[in-house]
Amino acid sequence: MVNHGMVLSALEKVTDPELHYDIVTLNMVRNVAISGDKVTVDVALTVKGCPLHQKIERDVQEAVGQLPGITTVHVNLDVMNDEERRTAFARAFQQSQKQRASQSAGATRAPTMPGPQGAAWSPLLAEESRTVLLGIASGKGGVGKSTVTANLAVALQRLGFRVGVMDMDIYGYSQGRMLGAQGQAKANADQKVVPWNAHGLSIVSMGMFVTDNQAVVWRGPMLGKMMQQFFTDVAWPDLDYLLIDLPPGTGDVALDVATRLPKASLVIVTTPQVVAQEVAMRTADVARRANQRIIGVIENMSYIPMGSGQRMELFGSGGGQELAHTLSVPLLGQIPMESSVREGGDRGIPVLLSAPESESAATFLQVAQKIDAAAHV
Ligand SMILES: Nc1ncnc2c1ncn2[C@@H]1O[C@H](COP(=O)(O)OP(=O)(O)O)[C@@H](O)[C@H]1O
Ligand SMILES: [Mg+2]
Fold it and tell me: Where is the composition biased (Low complexity) (predicted)?
């Protein structure tokens, strides 16, 4: 005879395709009913219209159907309420902490922090803080996420705001180069790291902590720890905006950010290519499940301006618009591909300062205005 515990054990083999934890741990199994050779499982999805619901349903049927004597498995799908969703993410977070602790046993001790508790990290994260936290995310690398971060930072500053940049891309840190800042981290009298200052921006990056060309071999588990230190151990001034250049990737990284910085809104950078758009969609999906707000999509490398309004669409077209449409958020802008953008990044003077008359500079300013209009709603 199959009992309740056996069904739950079987269900522990079913993982959520995006969050990579089993559906029991994730609090997705609401109820299990056994009647003779029939089992009914009520599953609550983290988000309505979850694109992966069919896979979850199939996997549940397969896992439970393998139990001896079970002929029919019926799956009822529903959607979590806010409370259930919070529990789900807290559990996934705890699980990731456990895995980290065991992965790094004997090496660096992983931080053991329960759920979201960012407020203790820094006044910037406190509920009453007016600082807008803006994560700049992309599904994959090379789409121009860091370039967009640097230029948006300058653009928001141009609009009169106090702006900080946190380079959380710990493997591919590049804000020092892009914004022309360098030098080892220096501590103030309170033993806090003083951010780099360049173009009037306060910048903190992994680049402050590694000596020349030293490869950063830290793996994902270190990300949360770095993020915490970039808040607690840095003497951030009062800021209107803190832009966070996030590492590319979906799943764990996005979950980490969403759990630790629930207050942060996201901007998703993609290219016109459909492949880039699909990967970005997965990042966005995790953010949405964590109830993290997505302000909009920025399409980068959209076209090459050919003069007199002519555009050459090198990487196809429509990716940004389609992604924005799928996510029901605005397409904030299409940044053209211009050599001045790349040169600006290489020289440490963002295009907004080095070629303010360029089409990309104008677009970055418009995007910053749209972000500011949306950020306080
Ligand atoms: N709009 C653009 N026009 C020209 N070059 C760009 C543009 N956006 C990014 N690049 C260049 O593409 C490369 C990758 O950009 P980067 O911002 O480092 O991407 P990511 O941070 O997503 O990995 C860099 O050399 C950058 O200068
Ligand atoms: Mg980058």
Answer: 93-105
Q: Which one of the ligands is nearest to 169 CA?
A: 2
Let me know whether 84 and 168 are in one domain: no
Task: Please determine, for residue 332, whether its predicted confidence score (pLDDT) is greater than 60.
Answer: yes
Q: Which two tokens stand for residue 374?
A: 């949306």
- Confidence tier at 123 by pLDDT (50, 70, 90): confident
Q: Residues with Cβ within 5 Å of ion ligand 2?
A: 146, 169, 172, 174
Q: Which residues line ligand 1 (CB under 6 A)?
A: 138, 141-147, 172, 174, 300-301, 335, 337-338, 341-342, 345, 360
- Degrees, nearest 5: CA angle 189-222-27: 120
**pLDDT for the residue numbered 93:** 65
Q: What is the mean pLDDT of the chain?
A: 84
pTM of the complete model: 0.72
Q: Which of 87, 115, 143 is the last residue of a domain?
A: 115
Residue-range definition of the domain harbouring residue 352: 120-375
CATH code where residue 49 lies: 3.30.300.130
Instruction: Give the integer Cα–Cα distance in Å for 320 and 272.
Output: 6
